[in-house]
Amino acid sequence: xxxxxxxxxxxAPLEKAGIRYMITGSVASSIYxxxxxxxxxxxxxxxxxxxxTELVNLFPEEDFYLPPSDVIEIERRRExxxxxxxxxxxxxxxADIYLSRNHPCLPWALEKCRRIETDSCPxxxxxxxxxxxxxxEFYRESGHQRHLRDIAGILEQxxxxxxxxxxxxxDLNLISQYKAAEALVEKF
Length: 188
Hints:
This protein is of the alpha+beta class and 188 residues long. The protein has a single domain, classed as Beta Polymerase, domain 2 (2-Layer Sandwich). The protein is 51% helix and 16% strand. The chain contains 9 helices and 7 strands, in the order H-E-H-E-H-E-H-E-E-H-E-E-H-H-H-H. The strands form 2 sheets. Strands 1-2-5-4-3 form a 5-stranded mixed beta sheet, sandwiched between helices. It has a two-stranded antiparallel sheet with strand order 6-7. A hairpin with a 5-residue loop joins strand 4 and strand 5 (94-98). The longest helix has 15 residues, at 128-142. The protein is globular. The mean pLDDT is 92.
Protein backbone atom coordinates (compact mmCIF):
# COMPACT_ATOMS: atom_id res chain seq x y z
CA UNK A 1 0.00 0.00 0.00
CA UNK A 2 1.02 3.65 -0.43
CA UNK A 3 2.62 5.49 2.48
CA UNK A 4 0.62 4.45 5.56
CA UNK A 5 1.13 7.90 7.11
CA UNK A 6 -1.64 9.24 4.85
CA UNK A 7 -3.97 6.78 6.50
CA UNK A 8 -2.96 7.50 10.10
CA UNK A 9 -2.75 11.28 9.56
CA UNK A 10 -5.89 11.95 7.50
CA UNK A 11 -8.12 8.87 7.25
CA ALA A 12 -8.01 7.41 10.76
CA PRO A 13 -9.53 10.57 12.29
CA LEU A 14 -12.41 10.46 9.78
CA GLU A 15 -12.95 6.77 10.54
CA LYS A 16 -12.95 7.38 14.28
CA ALA A 17 -15.44 10.26 13.95
CA GLY A 18 -17.73 8.31 11.61
CA ILE A 19 -17.50 10.93 8.85
CA ARG A 20 -18.30 9.25 5.56
CA TYR A 21 -15.51 9.41 2.95
CA MET A 22 -13.77 7.42 0.27
CA ILE A 23 -10.17 7.52 -0.95
CA THR A 24 -9.69 8.25 -4.63
CA GLY A 25 -6.92 9.76 -6.79
CA SER A 26 -3.32 8.59 -6.84
CA VAL A 27 -3.47 6.72 -3.52
CA ALA A 28 -6.44 4.67 -4.79
CA SER A 29 -4.80 4.13 -8.19
CA SER A 30 -1.63 2.95 -6.39
CA ILE A 31 -3.69 0.42 -4.45
CA TYR A 32 -5.46 -0.82 -7.58
CA UNK A 33 -2.59 -0.54 -10.05
CA UNK A 34 1.02 0.62 -10.06
CA UNK A 35 2.32 2.28 -6.88
CA UNK A 36 3.80 5.75 -7.21
CA UNK A 37 4.99 8.42 -4.82
CA UNK A 38 2.69 11.27 -3.96
CA UNK A 39 2.53 13.98 -1.32
CA UNK A 40 -1.26 14.12 -1.17
CA UNK A 41 -4.33 11.99 -0.74
CA UNK A 42 -7.64 12.72 -2.46
CA UNK A 43 -10.71 12.16 -0.29
CA UNK A 44 -14.35 12.48 -1.27
CA UNK A 45 -15.93 13.53 2.04
CA UNK A 46 -19.68 13.57 2.59
CA UNK A 47 -19.60 16.27 5.22
CA UNK A 48 -22.84 17.38 6.82
CA UNK A 49 -23.18 20.95 8.10
CA UNK A 50 -23.33 19.70 11.69
CA UNK A 51 -19.97 17.88 11.24
CA UNK A 52 -17.87 20.93 10.31
CA THR A 53 -16.92 21.78 13.91
CA GLU A 54 -16.04 18.13 14.52
CA LEU A 55 -13.86 18.09 11.40
CA VAL A 56 -12.01 21.21 12.55
CA ASN A 57 -11.45 19.57 15.95
CA LEU A 58 -10.08 16.41 14.30
CA PHE A 59 -7.31 18.42 12.64
CA PRO A 60 -6.07 20.89 15.29
CA GLU A 61 -4.44 24.15 14.20
CA GLU A 62 -1.13 23.38 15.93
CA ASP A 63 -0.67 20.31 13.68
CA PHE A 64 -2.66 21.16 10.54
CA TYR A 65 -3.58 23.92 8.18
CA LEU A 66 -7.33 23.87 7.67
CA PRO A 67 -9.44 26.70 6.26
CA PRO A 68 -11.87 28.48 8.60
CA SER A 69 -15.22 26.82 9.26
CA ASP A 70 -17.13 29.38 7.19
CA VAL A 71 -14.95 28.61 4.15
CA ILE A 72 -15.54 24.88 4.62
CA GLU A 73 -19.30 25.54 4.74
CA ILE A 74 -19.14 27.61 1.53
CA GLU A 75 -17.24 24.79 -0.20
CA ARG A 76 -19.65 22.18 1.20
CA ARG A 77 -22.63 24.01 -0.31
CA ARG A 78 -21.15 24.35 -3.80
CA GLU A 79 -23.05 22.36 -6.36
CA UNK A 80 -19.85 21.54 -8.22
CA UNK A 81 -16.14 21.55 -7.42
CA UNK A 82 -16.46 22.11 -3.66
CA UNK A 83 -12.94 21.56 -2.40
CA UNK A 84 -10.39 22.50 0.27
CA UNK A 85 -7.05 21.25 1.58
CA UNK A 86 -5.79 20.01 4.90
CA UNK A 87 -2.00 20.20 5.29
CA UNK A 88 -0.04 18.38 7.98
CA UNK A 89 2.62 20.82 9.21
CA UNK A 90 5.20 18.23 10.30
CA UNK A 91 5.28 16.13 7.10
CA UNK A 92 3.96 18.56 4.48
CA UNK A 93 1.47 15.88 3.44
CA UNK A 94 -1.77 17.24 2.04
CA ALA A 95 -5.31 15.95 1.84
CA ASP A 96 -7.43 17.29 -1.01
CA ILE A 97 -10.97 17.20 0.32
CA TYR A 98 -13.73 17.06 -2.33
CA LEU A 99 -17.17 17.88 -0.98
CA SER A 100 -19.54 18.23 -3.95
CA ARG A 101 -22.16 15.54 -4.20
CA ASN A 102 -23.41 16.10 -7.71
CA HIS A 103 -21.07 13.93 -9.78
CA PRO A 104 -23.31 11.57 -11.76
CA CYS A 105 -21.28 8.51 -10.69
CA LEU A 106 -21.11 9.31 -6.98
CA PRO A 107 -24.20 7.34 -5.86
CA TRP A 108 -22.92 4.28 -7.75
CA ALA A 109 -19.40 4.72 -6.30
CA LEU A 110 -20.69 5.03 -2.74
CA GLU A 111 -22.70 1.85 -3.19
CA LYS A 112 -19.65 0.01 -4.60
CA CYS A 113 -17.09 1.54 -2.21
CA ARG A 114 -14.56 -1.03 -0.99
CA ARG A 115 -13.38 -1.54 2.58
CA ILE A 116 -9.79 -2.61 3.16
CA GLU A 117 -8.00 -3.34 6.43
CA THR A 118 -4.72 -1.48 7.04
CA ASP A 119 -2.36 -1.40 10.01
CA SER A 120 -3.86 1.95 11.07
CA CYS A 121 -7.56 1.29 10.55
CA PRO A 122 -10.07 -0.01 8.01
CA UNK A 123 -10.39 2.33 5.02
CA UNK A 124 -12.96 3.06 2.32
CA UNK A 125 -11.70 3.22 -1.25
CA UNK A 126 -13.65 4.36 -4.28
CA UNK A 127 -14.20 1.55 -6.79
CA UNK A 128 -11.61 1.41 -9.60
CA UNK A 129 -14.14 2.54 -12.22
CA UNK A 130 -14.78 5.76 -10.29
CA UNK A 131 -11.05 6.36 -9.85
CA UNK A 132 -10.55 5.88 -13.60
CA UNK A 133 -13.38 8.24 -14.53
CA UNK A 134 -12.08 10.99 -12.25
CA UNK A 135 -8.53 10.56 -13.48
CA UNK A 136 -9.83 10.81 -17.07
CA GLU A 137 -11.58 14.08 -16.17
CA PHE A 138 -8.39 15.42 -14.60
CA TYR A 139 -6.42 14.33 -17.65
CA ARG A 140 -8.88 16.13 -19.93
CA GLU A 141 -8.48 19.31 -17.85
CA SER A 142 -4.70 19.20 -17.31
CA GLY A 143 -3.18 16.98 -19.99
CA HIS A 144 -0.85 15.43 -17.36
CA GLN A 145 0.32 12.02 -18.54
CA ARG A 146 0.60 10.72 -14.96
CA HIS A 147 -3.19 10.34 -14.94
CA LEU A 148 -3.03 8.08 -18.01
CA ARG A 149 -0.21 6.04 -16.43
CA ASP A 150 -2.27 5.62 -13.26
CA ILE A 151 -5.26 4.49 -15.31
CA ALA A 152 -3.14 2.09 -17.37
CA GLY A 153 -1.92 0.48 -14.13
CA ILE A 154 -5.50 -0.05 -12.98
CA LEU A 155 -6.56 -1.41 -16.38
CA GLU A 156 -3.73 -3.95 -16.27
CA GLN A 157 -4.60 -5.25 -12.82
CA UNK A 158 -8.30 -4.79 -12.07
CA UNK A 159 -11.41 -6.37 -13.53
CA UNK A 160 -13.91 -3.62 -14.29
CA UNK A 161 -17.66 -3.38 -14.70
CA UNK A 162 -17.41 -2.85 -18.47
CA UNK A 163 -21.10 -2.05 -18.93
CA UNK A 164 -20.94 0.71 -16.34
CA UNK A 165 -17.65 2.19 -17.47
CA UNK A 166 -18.55 2.21 -21.18
CA UNK A 167 -21.84 3.99 -20.45
CA UNK A 168 -20.10 6.58 -18.27
CA UNK A 169 -17.37 7.18 -20.86
CA UNK A 170 -20.12 8.07 -23.32
CA ASP A 171 -22.16 10.12 -20.84
CA LEU A 172 -19.12 12.07 -19.59
CA ASN A 173 -17.59 12.44 -23.07
CA LEU A 174 -14.36 10.67 -22.07
CA ILE A 175 -14.02 8.09 -24.84
CA SER A 176 -10.92 9.59 -26.52
CA GLN A 177 -9.17 10.01 -23.15
CA TYR A 178 -9.92 6.38 -22.26
CA LYS A 179 -8.51 5.23 -25.60
CA ALA A 180 -5.29 7.11 -24.80
CA ALA A 181 -5.03 5.17 -21.50
CA GLU A 182 -5.73 1.87 -23.27
CA ALA A 183 -2.96 2.69 -25.77
CA LEU A 184 -0.51 2.96 -22.86
CA VAL A 185 -1.50 -0.53 -21.68
CA GLU A 186 -0.80 -1.90 -25.15
CA LYS A 187 2.71 -0.34 -25.14
CA PHE A 188 3.67 -2.37 -22.07
